[in-house]
Specification:
The chain is an alpha+beta fold and 413 residues long. It folds into 2 domains: 6-214 and 328-412, 3-Layer(aba) Sandwich (Aminopeptidase); 215-326, Alpha-Beta Plaits, CATH 3.30.70. 31% of the residues lie in helices and 23% in strands. It has helices at residues 12-22, 40-53, 100-115, 142-147, 153-157, 167-171, 199-203, 241-255, 295-311, 333-345, 361-364, 391-408; strands at 59-62, 68-72, 82-87, 119-120, 124-129, 188-194, 207-213, 215-224, 228-229, 264-266, 270-273, 279-280, 283-292, 317-326, 329-330, 350-355, 369-375, 411-412. The strands form 4 sheets. Strands 1, 2, 3, 5, 6, 7, 15, 16 and 17 form a 9-stranded mixed beta sheet that branches. Strands 8, 10, 11, 13 and 14 form a 5-stranded antiparallel beta sheet that branches. Strands 4-18 form a two-stranded antiparallel ribbon. α1 (12-22) runs antiparallel to α3.
Length: 413
């Protein structure tokens, strides 16, 4: 490594400016971002990333599931690459930092390494994973799941959005780049991300070393009853899907109530049909998002979801479909030590903490040595248009990432 630390070439103003420019693609009136996976806004944002990367000598490539890679070629082509990035798709009323920071921090780290006169022995690839959020195509983290071999390409390509557009059809409308294999060997992966929680800001730490990710199980529940006239159908003869769904949700809430408050149970989507004021609802479809840090507790609660739904459906029929399952992850101590050493060498205060939210790193953990770097966000707010992170915090995280990547990729003058 050169005598000067490459992290000193991280440009805070450039990193901030790129966040502002990327946020133009899908910008909302309230300062947030609506950049759905495989949308025209996503396509335009990808092209912007490529425009920033090409003058640095990076080559844009993509795989069959639509993951975008910006490749800095290493000195030894026989070695597997080091990856760093996140995602650029958003929630419908999302913020400008969730996901995008990880991609832009990785790009900034590569630019800093080059400015320091260093070249990696292993190739470094800045990656933007396809559909992390799962807001248009469910479930999320499709790109990283396919990359890690956790989901089949055929299964992902067949998924359709609310308008009936398949992933395969949407991919055909995205920018085309030279192809790379799916899956393929990777040496290591490091993801920088805003915390999406209040710990770092509350305790005054600029950087967090992520110990792991809590587990998650998601479900789609369909309750089927029968339409009836709101004024003439006797209450005792109704098959009211909404009342049944309410009873089910209440029972699930009781199931997931714990004194420590560690269980995360959310019903975030609730669709009633025919959704008419004078008609007894004939069907309800709702989502379940269940999370916990302990694999045993998550398994126990998740395995009881279907029984609780059936027991409380009354005269209605209920069908429960598990959409995704991800066990809690613990990142390797060796990677955490590496990131911690980088922060310590730079004199940046830091602390260990787990991630309460899911990330693409959870799937990469299946394929290679993986780690995450957190930076604080204001009030812990995320998945909202007022999501915010300070420029200095973003730069600190990028500096730690730069030093970490320099070691992993064996950078030298």
């Amino acid at each position: 490594m050169s005598l000067a630390r490459p992290s000193r070439f991280v440009d805070q103003d450039r990193l901030w400016r790129r966040h502002e420019e990327l946020a133009r693609f899908g910008a909302t009136a309230r300062g947030g971002v609506n950049r759905q996976a495989l949308s025209p806004e996503d396509a335009a944002a990808r092209l912007q990333l490529v425009d920033w990367a090409r003058p640095l000598g990076l080559t844009a490539k993509s795989d069959a599931v639509g993951n975008l890679f910006l490749v800095l070629k290493g000195r030894d082509a026989a070695l597997s690459p080091v990856l760093s990035g996140s995602h650029i798709d958003s929630q419908p009323t999302g913020g400008r930092f969730d996901g995008a920071y990880g991609v832009l921090a990785a790009l900034e780290a590569v630019e800093a390494l080059l400015a320091a006169g260093l070249r990696p022995r292993r190739s470094i690839e800045v990656v933007a994973w396809m559909n992390e959020e799962g807001s248009r195509y469910a479930p999320g983290m499709m790109g990283s799941a396919a990359f890690a071999g956790a989901r089949s390409l055929a299964d992902i390509l067949a998924v359709r959005d609310a308008d009936g557009v398949s992933v395969e059809a949407a991919l055909a409308c995205m920018p085309s780049f030279p192809p790379v294999d799916l899956p393929r060997p990777v040496h290591a992966y490091v993801e920088a991300h805003i915390e999406q929680g209040p710990v770092l800001e509350r305790e005054g730490f600029p950087v967090g070393i992520v110990t792991g990710i809590q587990g998650k199980r998601t479900y789609r529940v369909t309750v089927t009853g029968e339409e009836a006239h709101a004024g003439t159908a006797p209450r005792g003869e109704r098959r009211d899907a909404l009342f049944a769904a309410m009873d089910i949700v209440s029972a699930l809430r009781r199931l997931t109530d714990d004194p420590e408050g560690l269980v995360r149970f959310t019903v975030g989507a609730f669709t009633v049909r025919p959704n008419a004021p004078s008609v007894v609802p004939s069907s309800v479809v709702f989502s379940i998002d269940l999370r916990h840090y302990d694999a045993g507790i998550l398994a126990s609660l998740g395995d009881r979801v279907e029984t609780v739904c059936e027991t409380n459906a009354g005269v209605c029929h209920v069908a429960v479909e598990e959409l995704s399952r991800a066990d809690p992850k613990s990142f390797p101590v060796s990677m955490r030590d590496r990131i911690r050493a980088a922060a310590g060498a730079l004199g940046i205060p830091h602390r260990d903490l787990p991630s309460a939210a899911g990330h693409d790193a959870g799937y990469l953990h299946l394929a290679c040595e993986t780690g995450m770097i957190f930076v604080p966000c204001r009030d812990g707010v995320s998945h909202r248009e007022d999501e915010w992170a300070e420029p200095a915090a973003l730069a600190d995280g990028a500096r730690v990432l730069t030093e970490t990547l320099a070691g992993l990729a064996d950078c030298a003058p």
